[in-house]
Design brief:
elongated; GtrA_CellWall_Glycosyl; 85% helix; transmembrane; 4 helices; GtrA_DPMS_TM
Length: 126
């Protein structure tokens, strides 16, 4: 598969993940009045489950037989690294720079997406 097609597919699924996260954050923060940190964690976990399925079968498909449990482990490590970078960015914006919590959540998507794509391309689904 061409790299441009892979990036396009990743962008489509990333957009769906962003919608899942935005709705989750909105419901938890506005409707349930849960703080932005717990809302963020929950939103990313829900989107990550969705993301793994699409990555395995559509974004980074492979013809060779793969060990799904190994991929789940590597995917979880990639998620942890991407999420950690995003979460530190989020906290820095909100707590350090007094940025709007919703804007910080949105900007964090770009940090997360970049780290996640690189880790999954180079480690999880190679």
């Amino acid at each position: 598969m061409k790299e441009s097609a892979r990036i396009f597919r990743f962008a489509i699924i990333g957009t769906l993940n962003a919608l899942i996260m935005a709705v989750t954050v909105w419901v938890m923060m506005d409707e349930l009045e849960i703080n932005y940190m717990l809302s963020n964690v929950t939103a990313y976990i829900l989107a990550q489950i969705h993301n793994f399925i699409w990555c395995k079968y559509w974004i980074f498909p492979t013809k060779k037989k793969s060990n799904t449990w190994r991929q789940v482990l590597l995917f979880s490590i990639a998620f942890g690294m991407a999420y950690g970078a995003q979460f530190l960015f989020l906290i820095g914006l909100v707590e350090g720079l007094d940025c709007n919590e919703y804007l910080a959540q949105f900007l964090g998507l770009f940090i997360y997406g970049s780290v996640n794509f690189l880790m999954n391309k180079r480690v999880t689904f190679r």
